[in-house]
Amino acid sequence: MKHIVSKFGGTSVADIPAMKRCAEIIVSTPGVKIVVVSATAKTTNGLEEFASKSLNAGDEALNLWESIFSRHYEMAKEAGLSQDSLIVMKELFSEGESLSLRINTAGQLSGELMDPVYSLGERMSALIFRAVLENTFRSNGQNKKVSYLNSREVMWTDESFLCANPLKDSIYQALSRQVNLEDETQVYVAEGFIGSTLDGRTTTFGREGSDFSAALYAEAIRASELQIWTDVPGIASADPRLGFPICWIPFLTFDEAESLALAGAKVLFPKTLSPVRSLSIPVFVGSSLDPKRSIGRERLGSYITHLEDCPSRLIAIASDRNAIGLIGHNIALLRDQIEARISKLDFEVRGVEAQSNSIRIVTGLSCDQNEVIRKIHDGLELDKGPFSGI
Ligand code: ADP
Ligand code: ASP
Ligand code: MG
Known about the structure:
The protein is an alpha/beta fold and 390 residues long. The chain contains eleven helices and 15 strands. The two termini are 43 Å apart.
């Protein structure tokens, strides 16, 4: 039986119309078993601000929390949440208020206090998304039960607040009790990013960590596919936001995608692939913004998988604060050709380090990294597709 885990990021679930687009994708994709959602766009940043404002006495923090909450409460009403679920929403509001008080009393913002504040974002969006999905199945005439899967009762972690590590055996045991894989009419909606210590304290996997949660769910149920739905139609040869022509990469190896994430490409949380690669669970990355182009065989997007006979190549460029990363299968074999080409481009290179799937270039301190990425991308003609040095 095919079981898919589908994760939707913050922009994908930003408001009710956005959630409806995601629900349409799920309804048109047979086999989706667990849906993992992030907090709605900008909410996690807002919660960070709320927590730090809570350090100072005054109404500023509570006003901010009230505005974050009210936006979600309006969404909840628009989604037609049941009275019981609206009561749960209101309990989250009170939880936020008491957390603010605890932070104020503690006088410092520990990870152990921050994580429950973070959790409010994903808990609100999961509650709302469950209702949107249930309604969408119903209006499409599909008889599905959509249950809430409480990540704080299955995603067991150690006590490393803000960057927790999963306790996989405990997760498997909890999921085998709480998820019915046999019943094809049963679908679950769970929060990304959050988990819990075995004694019930809320943890998170680190900012952007919902991708990792989804991969852990996929590993635990031995999914046939992990889908990461975001605001771009796949993985590109450079961050599409940089504003020059890029190309979309249809297939990447696990190593390539992992190296790209480690080099700073925001599209995937760096730890995401480790749970799925050993089971060879393919990962699809696509855009939730245009469901008509996201459904069916011809859907746009990138697949991350084991690729037989992949040539040595350069497929993408990314940067973190310290260096530019050139990524591609066995790219180290192309080092000389790449260095020769790069030496003709006009920027200062302070060091080059090659590993099998990435070449790290440390640029001069005065270099504008985005400008360097553009120069390398143009110079190696990456917009025409993977560079294989020919
Ligand atoms: P989500 O909220 O869905 O997790 P993110 O903002 O974390 O989405 O990741 C998607 C963003 O990653 C895109 O909007 C894009 O700007 C950025 N990004 C950076 N590098 C790449 C790349 N090589 N390919 C695709 N997107 C990239
Ligand atoms: N909501 C969290 C964040 O913004 C986790 C995620 O979206 O992946 O960092
Ligand atoms: Mg992300």
